[in-house]
Amino acid sequence: MDDIEFEKLRDRYRGCLLGLAAGDALGAPVEFINRDEIALRYGVVREMLGGGWLDTKPGEYTDDTQMALAIARSIAELGRIDPADIGARFVQWMESMPKDIGNTTLQSLGYLAAGMPWDEAGARTAARKGDSGAGNGSVMRAAPIGLACRNDPAALIRQSIDISRITHADPRCTWSCVALCQAIAVLLHGSENVLAAAAEGIEEPEVRATLERTATIGRADVRSGGYVLHTLGAAFWAFVNHDSFEDVVVAAVNLGGDADSSGAVSGALAGARYGASAIPERWLAVLQSRQELTDLADRLLELA
User: Fold this and answer.
1) Lowest CB count within 10 Å: 106, 157, 212, 291, which one?
2) Which residues of the chain are modeled with pLDDT < 50?
3) What pLDDT, on a 0 to 100 scale, did the predictor assign at position 4?
């Protein structure tokens, strides 16, 4: 790889993590507001507003990025992906009393904190919650696995599933993580055939159907709630229908609903395509943990 190609790759790695955090922070102030109310109040949300039900500061991210950081820090420090260590970091984060934590995540981490092994906690929660356990709490944080495993497709599938299973063991959640990370991996290599790459080998039919539908629907038919397939579909819809980092993330966030998670997942995708250099500087200037996110991206590139 020559210097120019390496710089492009590093820019995409940085873009993926910074994009996740930027999308999260842009969407946080309008989380749980529907798209019509967003339009009435703000027109189009295109700036880091702050506020919302979590009373965030402009550029402050939420649990989506906090959990992604826990994954990235673990990989960076250990030099490998260790679900037990990541689970322990999730528990430490939960015990720090974050502003927001999803119900499925909270229940699973409660089991972990009580001594249950990482590979049983999410399954116990899934068995108890049924359909209500198929939330977006693992896909929103999954991007670091795509960065770490870009050159090992088999490990990418296995680790995406395992890191989801810590809290979200429902197959719709685990395979949504695989789809996202497969898309990130091909984007890092400069591929444009993203939907096909995301769907490659996906064993959960509802995840495949969500990806296939994405290319054919209009904005009015895009769902953007906390259900994992809604977040996956909203993020990919925004990604395939817009042509710049900013436009992708703005489109996802302005769908409303679970706007921070749609923003985070679309931001990870758009960052992996367009790079950190394409993220608006006015967003990055106020983005929490900008330097750490950059440094972690560089470390994941080194390890990959």
Assistant:
1) 291
2) none
3) 85
